[in-house]
TrEMBL record:
Spans through the membrane: 24-43, 49-78, 98-116, 136-157, 169-189, 201-224, 268-287, 293-315, 327-350, 370-390, 402-420, 426-446
Keywords of this entry: Antiport, Cell membrane, Ion transport, Membrane, Transmembrane, Transmembrane helix, Transport
Subcellular location per the Swiss-Prot or TrEMBL entry: Cell membrane
Family, as annotated: Belongs to the multi antimicrobial extrusion (MATE) (TC 2.A.66.1) family.
Highest taxon, organism lineage: Bacteria
A Pfam family reported for this protein in Swiss-Prot or TrEMBL: MatE
Stated name of the protein: Probable multidrug resistance protein NorM
Presence of the UniProt keyword Translocase in the record: no
Lineage, broadest ranks: Bacteria, Bacillati, Bacillota, Clostridia, Eubacteriales
Membrane topology category: Multi-pass membrane protein
Length: 456
């Protein structure tokens, strides 16, 4: 086990940022591939199946708020402990994140199993859509604790300055899911004469669960075997430390509330889009998967930057933290500009890659053109916002979501749909408006500088 805790605090800053962010970005891109693969395969079943998975995914990510709260807290706890060269405190932070997050996931899964069907019925009365959502959803909910734990091991490794190992784990998981999807879903694997299990939408859920379990096992083994920079002890995983657990709940609480408002606004948006029919639901479902995929580079650089910022703050190196954020933001803007150009040039090709229904494609083309520029604004928000998760000062995330989503986007959508009864394309424009407002709020809090003095 290495004792070098200055990996990210010395040497060329740009090189360190790329060393942390590119593997993280690639890992998340490849992991999100299996979400896209799910939708592509599910699109071969029916538009109702796509709509069902869209509804379930919208509701399911509400429970990920808990993962966001604890995960965000763990970033600052682990990275600052490691940056201050306290290995015992670092180990304890990782161990407590694992057990506490898994316990919370069990509770969340039970609640989700009891409420998922009534929640789905709020959004759609189409029995085919509801049936698809439940077939895909029940298996995903049952394995929620494993999903949370898989996130934990990858986050811990990144906070220690190791971004390559999580990337490799995610590559293995993604390839496994891509291979298993057609085997579980279809009677005959498309393009071959090889028989499959013909489980339909359920098969897509099972394939995702298996790949998640494999990812967790690999990462957990690395942490307990001492092959990483910190070795955790299994006996400590079964002991709750109330002081640390309180921090895990409170440090990231504003970030969790932000995600709550963001996801809830997404549910409200889906509710309004449902006024335009099943084809519209299928289109925004594809759009969500597509933009989540495009969001992965931003997430990669945000996580890489946050880990470096956390270690810099632990070592009281404020100027290096600021430089890290500056370069991360510039890279984000460049990447999102490139993606926007591609979306404008090839919108039809992108939609046809997901589904063959002409009605859904016609809805999706303007959606892609109008919504994609919003990613540029997200690049700025994610770049500057990495200082908040690195420092543990996460209140700006919450306020930016409240103002941009609930103060701007949702009122605009309600007026457009229910009062003015405008065509659907006007809904897409609200995403860009909201993201611009979000940038303004994040920038104000970044310049205020509270994060520079915040420690956990």
């Amino acid at each position: 086990m290495t004792t070098d805790t200055n990996d990210l605090l010395t040497g060329d800053l740009k090189r360190n940022l790329l060393k942390m962010s590119i593997p993280t970005m690639l890992g998340f891109l490849l992991q999100s591939v299996y979400d896209i693969v799910d939708i592509i395969w599910i699109g071969r079943i029916s538009s109702s199946a796509v709509a069902g998975v869209t509804l379930f995914s919208t509701i399911f990510w509400m429970v990920d708020i808990l993962n966001e709260i604890i995960g965000t807290s763990s970033i600052s706890l682990i990275s600052q402990s490691y940056g201050s060269k306290d290995q015992n405190k670092t180990s304890l932070a990782i161990e407590q994140t694992l057990i506490f997050k898994a316990l919370v996931a069990v509770i969340a899964a039970i609640i989700m199993l009891l409420t998922i069907k009534p929640l789905l019925n709020i959004f759609s009365k189409d029995t085919n859509v509801i049936q698809s959502a439940l077939q895909y959803g029940y298996i995903r909910i049952f394995f929620l604790p494993i999903m949370f734990s898989s996130y934990t091991v990858n986050t811990a490794l990144r906070c220690l300055g190791d971004a390559k190992t999580p990337m490799k784990i995610m590559i293995v998981s993604s390839i496994l899911n891509v291979v298993l999807d057609p085997i579980f879903m279809f009677e005959t694997i498309p393009g071959t004469s090889i028989p499959g299990l013909n489980l339909g939408v359920l098969g897509a859920g099972i394939a995702t669960v298996i790949s998640t379990v494999v990812a967790f096992i690999i990462g957990f083994y690395i942490l307990i075997s001492g092959k990483g920079k910190i070795k955790i002890k299994i006996k400590n995983i079964f002991k709750l430390d109330l002081e640390i657990d309180k921090k895990l709940l409170t440090i990231g609480l504003p970030s969790g509330v932000e995600m709550l408002f963001r996801q809830f606004s997404g549910m409200i948006t889906i509710y309004f889009v449902s006024d335009y029919g099943t084809n519209a639901l299928a289109a925004i479902g594809i759009g969500n998967k597509l933009f989540n995929f495009a969001f992965m580079p931003l997430l990669g650089f945000a996580i890489g930057s946050s880990s470096i910022v956390g270690q810099c703050l632990g070592a009281e190196n404020i100027s290096r933290a600021k430089e890290t954020v500056k370069y991360s933001t510039l890279i984000n803007i460049s990447l999102m500009c490139l993606l926007t150009i591609m979306a404008f040039l090839f919108p039809s090709f992108i939609m046809k890659s997901f589904i063959k229904d002409p009605a859904v494609i016609d809805i999706g083309i303007p959606m892609i053109k109008i919504m994609t520029p919003a990613l540029i604004a997200s690049g700025v928000s994610m770049g500057l916002g990495s200082v908040f998760s690195g420092s543990g000062h996460n209140t700006p995330f919450m306020l930016s979501s409240l103002i941009s989503r609930w103060g701007v986007q949702i009122p605009l959508i309600a007026i457009m749909v229910r009062v003015l009864k405008l065509p659907m394309n006007y809904i897409w424009s609200t995403f860009l408006i909201a993201n611009i407002v979000e940038v303004i709020v994040v920038y104000v809090f970044y310049k205020k500088g509270t994060w520079e003095h915040k420690r956990v």
